[in-house]
């Protein structure tokens, strides 16, 4: 009496069921607690006056050299927690790399990009990606984008070297991968395409078809 045809008691089945329910509930609670801790930690860094730890000279792109821009040319943020990053803006320096670095280190310039790519392909980072650079001439675009300068002049197609295109494409592909930015012309744009801007860069000689093909290839290679 009390035993089923399989030899297991109904009461035993209920005990096993209750045990599984308790274990499952505990596991779910632990998972919920872990998510809560992660969200609390994320929110903590968004509290005014609280900043994530920063190491002097730290770069976001492996291989880049660090040269800090003037504090007057950017502002501290905690992107992508406080502002999403969904765009890359392509610029041209209208000068050589050294003059661009000098301008971005000048507090009176009031503008700077996160990166500069030289004609030799060398990448210089001057502002951390988590911070907002004053580069687009539009506050909303500044807050949601990464700015990349390219050494040269808009009216000199010879300034846009193979090394520059390839290096910049790898940099942009890495940024797109990091923030899940679509690799298309709606999210990778020229300074001239920013609403309200009076700039013309990267100009008519920037080969967008070539550049986007290189970015897609670099993104695919990174995923592989």
From TrEMBL:
It holds the Pfam family Amidase_2. Keywords: Cell wall biogenesis/degradation, Hydrolase. The keyword Cell wall biogenesis/degradation applies. It is an enzyme of class 3 (hydrolase). Residues 74-203 form the N-acetylmuramoyl-L-alanine amidase domain. Signal peptide: none annotated. SMART domains: Ami_2 (SM00644). Its EC number is 3.5.1.28. It catalyses: Hydrolyzes the link between N-acetylmuramoyl residues and L-amino acid residues in certain cell-wall glycopeptides. Transmembrane segments: none annotated. PANTHER family: N-ACETYLMURAMOYL-L-ALANINE AMIDASE AMID. This is N-acetylmuramoyl-L-alanine amidase. It comes from Streptomyces composti.
